[in-house]
Amino acid sequence: MATIQNSKLTRDLSISLLLYTLPVLAIYLYFKLSNGVVSESHITLPSFLEFAKPAFTNIRTWGLTVFMLVLGIIEFSAGLYDDQWTGEERKIDIISFLAPKLILPPVIAFFSLTVLPVLIPNLENSLSWVPFWGGFFLIAIADDLTQYWYHRLHHQVPFLWRFHRTHHSAPYMGMAMLSRQNFIYTIFFSQIYLTATLTYLGLGLPALFVLVLKSFITLGAHSSIAWDKPLYKYKVLHPIAWVLERLISTPATHHAHHADTSGDGVGHFKGNFGNMFFIWDVIFGTGLITRKFPKSYGIKSYKQEEWYAQFLWPIFKSKKEGSALADGVFSVPLKPKAENATPSPALYEQAQS
């Protein structure tokens, strides 16, 4: 079994390396066929997108926050949380929403303005000659494929899982839990630094458009408003649904990832790792498409740990007996151990059982 898993991992990593090179190859061939000529028209924003630049800039700075709040209010008004947003759930969601907006900007600024000039000196704006479409293609793949692996590894590596389980502990889906993460998972969000590096190298404009587009897709995938249901209901829309659900994350595919069980044939917490693009799950065989929604969400062994334990573990531990975040507890066993079984020093609590 271990040999099979290692073989699959090697294969998937090899495919990933190929995917990372595709935009680079496309840009190379483009200039090869144009005899290496770089003109102003290559690197400026296409005219049909020029009008949208101010909107994308404002959306990135404050618009997304407003959009999240408005969508959250609509969800609450519609009663989509079934009165589950109480106690520790409310605290961890609010803290996780506000903290990154205070913590990440100075961290990314320090990385971009202080660290990168030392690591890659004299390379600032060195990729500014890359066409907008090339930069968009490059960042879209590099950013989202990197996040796919970051996300997947946090589900498949027992030690890493505890830094991500906070996101899966919510017994509901929606704007309230979108940012719900352990602070270490957030700070070491690998693709943030990759995109910051590409921006430093001169791809800031494509990065703006990619990140705004990605934000709307991930917002829509987490929302409790199932905008994709009409695509499955009306036969005339089925072709659109077929393409969309394989290309990007939709509520149906991402809600399945947050289900508290996989025994119903709908939940798929061991896959559906894609964030903006679901196509990674299609390529690597980790996807499940059912066009159905789970009946319940979260972690079956969830003990409503204190907000500080969920957000700041391992600095602060949970006081809940048996919690995977408690002091001296590596994880929670999936099923009771046999009386004569030898205790395991690091039993792994899966996202759900």
From TrEMBL:
<feature type="transmembrane region" description="Helical">
    <location>
        <begin position="12"/>
        <end position="31"/>
    </location>
</feature>
<dbReference type="GO" id="GO:0016020">
    <property type="term" value="C:membrane"/>
</dbReference>
<keyword id="KW-0472">Membrane</keyword>
<keyword id="KW-0812">Transmembrane</keyword>
<feature type="domain" description="Fatty acid hydroxylase">
    <location>
        <begin position="137"/>
        <end position="286"/>
    </location>
</feature>
<dbReference type="GO" id="GO:0012505">
    <property type="term" value="C:endomembrane system"/>
</dbReference>
<keyword id="KW-0560">Oxidoreductase</keyword>
<keyword id="KW-0443">Lipid metabolism</keyword>
<keyword id="KW-1133">Transmembrane helix</keyword>
<protein>
    <submittedName>
        <fullName>Sterol desaturase</fullName>
    </submittedName>
</protein>
<feature type="transmembrane region" description="Helical">
    <location>
        <begin position="102"/>
        <end position="120"/>
    </location>
</feature>
<dbReference type="GO" id="GO:0006643">
    <property type="term" value="P:membrane lipid metabolic process"/>
</dbReference>
<dbReference type="GO" id="GO:0008610">
    <property type="term" value="P:lipid biosynthetic process"/>
</dbReference>
<feature type="transmembrane region" description="Helical">
    <location>
        <begin position="59"/>
        <end position="81"/>
    </location>
</feature>
<dbReference type="GO" id="GO:0005506">
    <property type="term" value="F:iron ion binding"/>
</dbReference>
<feature type="transmembrane region" description="Helical">
    <location>
        <begin position="132"/>
        <end position="150"/>
    </location>
</feature>
<feature type="transmembrane region" description="Helical">
    <location>
        <begin position="183"/>
        <end position="201"/>
    </location>
</feature>
<dbReference type="InterPro" id="IPR006694">
    <property type="entry name" value="Fatty_acid_hydroxylase"/>
</dbReference>
<dbReference type="Pfam" id="PF04116">
    <property type="entry name" value="FA_hydroxylase"/>
</dbReference>
<dbReference type="InterPro" id="IPR051689">
    <property type="entry name" value="Sterol_desaturase/TMEM195"/>
</dbReference>
<dbReference type="GO" id="GO:0050479">
    <property type="term" value="F:glyceryl-ether monooxygenase activity"/>
</dbReference>
